[in-house]
Amino acid sequence: MKPAEIAKRLGIRYQHAYNVLNAQSTARTANVVPKSSGVETSSVGSAGKPRLQVDILVANGFRRVGSWILSGDSLVLESPVPNEVGVYAFVKAGTAQYVGVATMGLSKRLYFYGRPGVSQRTSQRLNTIIKAELLGPDAIEIYVASPPDLEWNGLPVHGSAGLELGLIKRYALPWNMRSASK
User: Which CATH number does the domain 42-181 belong to among 3.30.450.20, 3.30.70.260, 3.90.1640.10, 3.40.1440.40?
Assistant: First the structure.
C-alpha cells in the first residue's frame, strides 16, 4: 500500500504513515529484523536512539496505573487514573511507545484519548493506533510520574514538560511524532 492509502484507512496524517514506512525500510537495510507488528526487535530504534524500556521508567519513579481496554468500539481505561499533573507513557511488551505530558491533569488528558474531540489530532491518531494494537496479543499499559517543578536562576521550570521533552529527545518512541522526526 502507498502511504496515502494507509493514512486514509487508519485516519492518520500522511506524514506519519510515510515516516513509519520509511523507518521500516531503513531498519531492513540495517539488517534489523522487524516483528510482525512492524517494531524492530533491536534495543535501538530507527533513528539510532535506544528504546525506552519499562524497567528504566520504573527505576526512575514511574508507576503503573492501568492499561487501555476495548469496550465494544470504545477505548477505555481499566481503572481510574490520578488527577495530578504529570508525564505518562504508553507501554507495549515492556517498551514505551509514546510519552506525553498532562498539564491539565493525567485523568483529564487520558480521557481525551478514549473520546477525542474533532480538533484533537494527536488524541484521534493515538486512539486509532491503540485500538488497532489492542486487537493483537499485547496490552497497552499506562505508566505515570509526577516530577516536581524546579527553578533555574530564579525562573520557573515545569518538571513534567521538561521530563517529557527529555524522554522524546533521548529515546526512540515510535508513536511520538517529534521523536520520529528528530
Answer: 3.40.1440.40
> Which has the closest alpha carbon to 44: 30, 25, 55, 54?
30
- Phi-psi sector, 119: left (phi>0), alpha (psi -120 to 50), beta: alpha
Least confident window among 11-20, 32-41, 78-87, 114-123: 32-41
C-alpha cell at 156: 520557573
Q: Is there a contact between 180 and 171 (Cβ–Cβ < 8 Å)?
A: no
Around Cβ 49, how many Cβ atoms within 10 Å? 16
Strands (E), 43-171: 63-71, 74-77, 86-92, 95-102, 140-145, 150-152, 155-157
Task: Enumerate helices (H) and strands (E) in the chain, giving the number of each.
Answer: 7, 7
Beta-sheet pairing, 140-145 with 86-92 = antiparallel
- With 0.90 as the threshold, say if the pTM is over it: no
By CB neighbour count within 10 A (0-12 exposed, 13-18 middle, 19+ buried), where does 122 fall? middle
